[in-house]
Amino acid sequence: MTKDQYLRMVEQTGEEIDWDRIPPDLEDFPESVYTALCIFNSMGNRLQADIGYLGKDYTNLELLYKFYLIKEYEKDWIFELLLFLDEREIKESQKRMKSEMDKIKRK
């Protein structure tokens, strides 16, 4: 649910806005989060047929840092964000693979 959807829902139901429940928009985060998302989406995926998604390929990370004009003091923070995003993608991939394997076993 986006911020706009939440606000429309609250308006339609006549509820009072609970600012703690509003989902954040990308604009609500620091610019470095947006940059990390761009870098994350620019990196290649490492895949294996039986395992699925293994994570991002960090081979070109320094090149992407240069392309996105990342300063030296920002690199650690951006890297932490990339690892966070990668970990979530890996877990999601594992869930999808498990779900597909369970479907195959049921047949």
What summary fits the major beta sheet? 2 strands, antiparallel
Could you give the order of strands across the largest sheet? 1-2
Strand content: 5-15%
SSE sequence, one letter per element = HHEEHH
Quickly count the helices. Answer: 4
Oligomer: single chain
Number of domains: 1
Query: Looking at the structure, what is the overall shape?
Result: flat
Spans where pLDDT lies below 50 across 5 or more residues: none
Task: Let me know the number of strands.
Answer: 2
Radius of gyration, rounded? 19 Å
Give the distance, in angstroms, between the N- and C-terminal Cα atoms: 35 Å
Structural class: mainly alpha
**Percent helix range:** 55-70%
Average pLDDT rating: 90
Structure description:
The chain is flat, with a radius of gyration of 19 Å. It has helices spanning 3-13, 31-42, 61-67, 75-106; strands spanning 45-48, 52-56. The longest helix has 32 residues, at 75-106. It has one domain. It has four helices and two strands. The chain has 107 residues and is mainly α. A two-stranded antiparallel ribbon has the order 1-2. Helix 2 crosses helix 4 (75-106). It is 58% helix and 8% strand.
